[in-house]
């Protein structure tokens, strides 16, 4: 986990104001109290994704939540498919005995 101050220091161009806005919009999650948020690796990856979408791909703040929601749905679907394939493989293995 990484503290907000260290994350900002290690991320050139990342502004505290932006990160706090993303937290309040619930685009990013943090652990700990709001006065000292801590970020897991998955949260840092999402912050990088938001910055890439906004800065490199010129996605505006109105479109960001839509894109993030669609990506979240895609990741959830991929996770469900992996679980389904795993369960199916386990069931086939039990039937072969």
What does this structure look like?
Helices cover 66% and strands 4% of the residues. It is mostly helical. The chain has one domain (2-95): Multidrug-efflux Transporter Regulator, Chain: A, Domain 2, CATH 1.10.1660. It has a two-stranded antiparallel sheet. The radius of gyration is 18 Å and the shape is elongated. The mean pLDDT is 93.
Task: Determine and state the CATH class.
Answer: Mainly Alpha
Order of helices and strands: EHHEHH
Q: Based on Cα principal axes, name the global outline.
A: elongated
What's the arrangement of strands in the largest beta sheet?
1-2
The main sheet comes to: 2 strands, antiparallel
Helix content: 55-70%
Q: In oligomeric terms, what are we looking at? A: single chain
What's the mean pLDDT score?
93
Query: Radius of gyration over alpha carbons?
Result: 18 Å
Total count of domains = 1
Amino- and carboxy-terminal Cα gap: 45 Å
- Counting DSSP E segments of at least 2 residues, the number of strands comes to 2
Beta-strand percentage? under 5%
Low-confidence segments:
none
Helix count equals 4
Q: Might you state the CATH topology name?
A: Multidrug-efflux Transporter Regulator, Chain: A, Domain 2
Secondary structure class reads mainly alpha
CATH architecture: Orthogonal Bundle
Protein name: MerR family transcriptional regulator
Organism: Azospirillum cavernae
């Amino acid at each position: 986990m990484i503290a907000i101050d260290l994350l900002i220091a290690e991320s050139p161009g990342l502004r505290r104001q932006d990160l706090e806005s993303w937290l309040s919009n619930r685009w990013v999650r943090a652990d700990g109290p709001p006065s000292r948020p801590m970020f897991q690796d998955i949260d840092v990856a999402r912050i990088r994704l938001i910055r890439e979408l906004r800065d490199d791909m010129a996605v505006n703040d109105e479109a960001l939540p839509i894109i993030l929601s669609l990506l979240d749905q895609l990741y959830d679907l991929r996770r469900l498919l992996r679980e389904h394939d795993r369960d199916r493989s386990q069931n086939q293995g039990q039937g072969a005995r």
